[in-house]
Amino acid sequence: MLNTYFMYLLSFDWRVVATCIVARTENLLKCEFLEMAQEVVNPEEQVVLGEEIDHVRVITLNRPRQLNVISSKVVSLLADFLEKWEKDDSTELILIKGAGRAFSAGGDLRMFYDGRTSRDSCVEVVYRMYWLCHHIHTYKKTQVALVHGISMGGGASLMVPMKFSVVTEKTVFSTPEASIGFHTDCGFSYILSRLPSHLGEFLALTGARLNGKELVAAGMATHFVPFEKLPELEKRLISLNSGDENAVKSVIEEFSVDIQLDEDSVLNKLSIIDECFSKDTVVDIIKSFELEASKDGNGWIGAILKGLKRSSPTGLKITLRSIREGRKQTVAECLEKEFRLTMNTLRTTISADVYEGIRALTIDKDNAPKWDPPTCDEVDDSKVDLVFQPFKDNLELQIPENEKHRWEGKYEHSAYAALNATEIAK
């Protein structure tokens, strides 16, 4: 992966695709995902559109054919727009949406894989993405995400932290990074750790999907609006021409409907989830889940358990610990931790599972990863400790602590940029 080209990790696996799309389109969309994972960003493509309409600003993620994949250009443009508009007194309301039939499915696994032979080839893009995530969490102007279709992993980090996040019956959410040897990132060790009971551990470890209604019920979206009403809602918000939170909320509520969870929703299984995913270790969680699966009426567990047991043992252990630590960390601390985890994972500090997971999914497409080590019992906890160790201060993610200087700490002023410049000069 080139330093000048960013593709942040796409957060899904084939099992999630199979469960999140209706049966008649499963094969089509699975192929579409795999094509996206090998797509190269056209440098001339307008991957993010920024429109200024009086006091309203509209951001459109504009790679519909690739399900609005997040590239280096996307990150840079988002950061530029958000910084400019936060400092602009005439900007009051920001809307963000995805072109086509997806919000954002994340990034490009193939490009991630191609960077495996060059140490820290993607440090710039990882740094920029996590730095941007903090600014989205702490943004000073009113933001509304209009979310339909797929919103997974890094893509969902552009939705959940917003003041208002509007979802529809077509919205699909998931964070299944552990299944390919990665970890739940982009601030989700903070977000998921604050969900009811132990739902966060469940979502992070299993990659289970949530629909729009479930996102609202879980507190990761604020309103449910029928898909057909979304264009009209957008028009009304633009015509409102104000960032007053009460006024914005009032408009959204005109279009929103009360939700009623489907009978088979995983959110109706929280007692079982809490019982199983409160266990101390991944091994104990799996054993407890297996026990519940054997009981009458728990047929829903089978497919989820199968996916969980096929996931990277190293990825599962790192993910569980990250979520558990997240409960006691601020969003800034979570992002700093996730930066360390990501860099150490890409450096294969304790395992090369992330590249093996991507190989199995998008390169050879055999869906038969060979994990190293192959079982949770063989993953040395002392080695897991290594990926959590802080870096030297100047090599940590530099998140500004002073509100007056909140847009400082950018990659180009970091120690990594200086190190990269040195390498280029050699």
TrEMBL record:
<protein>
    <recommendedName>
        <fullName>3-hydroxyisobutyryl-CoA hydrolase</fullName>
        <ecNumber>3.1.2.4</ecNumber>
    </recommendedName>
</protein>
<feature type="signal peptide">
    <location>
        <begin position="1"/>
        <end position="18"/>
    </location>
</feature>
<comment type="similarity">
    <text>Belongs to the enoyl-CoA hydratase/isomerase family.</text>
</comment>
<dbReference type="InterPro" id="IPR045004">
    <property type="entry name" value="ECH_dom"/>
</dbReference>
<feature type="domain" description="Enoyl-CoA hydratase/isomerase">
    <location>
        <begin position="56"/>
        <end position="388"/>
    </location>
</feature>
<comment type="pathway">
    <text>Amino-acid degradation; L-valine degradation.</text>
</comment>
<keyword id="KW-0732">Signal</keyword>
<dbReference type="InterPro" id="IPR032259">
    <property type="entry name" value="HIBYL-CoA-H"/>
</dbReference>
<dbReference type="GO" id="GO:0003860">
    <property type="term" value="F:3-hydroxyisobutyryl-CoA hydrolase activity"/>
</dbReference>
<dbReference type="Pfam" id="PF16113">
    <property type="entry name" value="ECH_2"/>
</dbReference>
<keyword id="KW-0378">Hydrolase</keyword>
<dbReference type="GO" id="GO:0006574">
    <property type="term" value="P:L-valine catabolic process"/>
</dbReference>
<comment type="function">
    <text>Hydrolyzes 3-hydroxyisobutyryl-CoA (HIBYL-CoA), a saline catabolite. Has high activity toward isobutyryl-CoA. Could be an isobutyryl-CoA dehydrogenase that functions in valine catabolism.</text>
</comment>
